[in-house]
Design goal:
Among the domains are: 101-155; 226-269, no CATH class. The chain contains eight helices and eight strands. It has helices spanning 5-10, 42-61, 76-86, 103-121, 130-147, 169-177, 206-239, 252-269, and strands spanning 15-18, 30-34, 37-40, 66-69, 90-91, 159-163, 182-186, 197-200. A five-stranded parallel sheet has the order 5-4-6-7-8, sandwiched between helices. It has a three-stranded antiparallel sheet with strand order 1-3-2. Helix 4 packs across helix 5 (130-147).
């Protein structure tokens, strides 16, 4: 994937925090300072971003799930747009403690939300008392606000992509506890040692945040396309088998398994 240095500059990716609030562990990613503001070395940003994008792309090729996380004011919209673009789950409101480490309970809450939504759609709520209907509606609104981005996430994600890990430390620590890799945009106040794929960059400016989210969404989409092409090629190959060999044709399940293997093989060659 082509990463434009010009686009990084225009988005202000190189602007870090004030020098007094830096984390010394970010020193290797810092070019210098200007007017008491740390300047991030964009050559390091490009290097680490390429690693991160290849990682999430490869996960998408394998059909894995990447959870996008950003609950700060400047990241909420960008995370939502990126998740919708690449078809991945997201959290852009408050992170519920236990979202990963207490996943079974979260799944029960999601089930409760879906049940109330079904009752509302089928007009079942209309036959309940006014008090009960009001209570269930309040429950629905509360659960919807917290869980709307992960309603269809039926299993733990294979990785997290996070904007501003300092603001999402609960998510970072839950992922580390479960050994779920984390990709994160790390400003100069962050601790990169907590992140598996740290990408040095401005996590406060809206344009910078949106650019990173766009790169990640595009990488995931690219991986999904590779996976889909490998699957279609395998299906086409199976469909072209001569009729006399019909008895030895692969079952749909076998085709799916081989398609996934083919997708992984394509990834390894790239």
């Amino acid at each position: 994937m082509n990463i434009s240095m010009k686009s990084l500059l225009e988005a202000g990716v190189h602007f870090g925090h004030q020098t007094r609030s830096w984390n010394p562990k970010m020193a290797k990613y810092i070019f210098g300072s200007r007017n008491n503001i740390h300047i991030i070395d964009l050559s390091k940003t490009v290097k680490e971003l390429k690693k991160a994008l290849k990682y999430v792309r490869d996960l998408a090729v394998e059909g894995q799930v990447v959870l996008l996380v950003g609950t700060t004011k400047q990241s909420q919209e960008a995370i939502l747009e990126a998740a919708n673009k690449c078809g991945m789950p997201y959290i852009n409101e408050r992170w519920l403690g236990g979202t990963l480490t207490n996943f079974n309970t979260i799944q029960k809450s999601i089930g409760r939300l879906k049940e109330i939504e079904r009752m509302k759609q089928e007009k079942i709520l209309d036959v309940l008392s006014k008090k009960e209907k009001s209570r269930l509606e309040k429950v629905r609104v509360r659960l919807e606000k917290s869980l709307h981005g992960v309603k269809e996430m039926g299993e733990l994600p294979s990785a997290l992509f996070i904007i501003d890990p300092m603001a999402e430390m609960t998510a970072v620590m839950e992922a580390r506890k479960l050994e779920i890799p984390v990709v994160a945009v790390c400003d100069t106040n962050c601790d990169p040692d907590l992140i598996d794929y740290p990408v040095p960059g401005n996590d406060d400016a809206i344009r910078s945040v949106k650019l990173f989210c766009t790169y990640v969404a595009d990488a995931i989409l690219e991986g999904k396309m590779v996976r889909e092409k490998a699957s279609m090629d395998k299906l086409a190959q199976a469909a072209s088998l001569p009729e006399e060999a019909a008895g030895s044709e692969l079952s749909p399940a076998d085709i799916t398994v081989e398609a996934e293997a083919a997708a992984v093989e394509v990834t390894q060659k790239i």
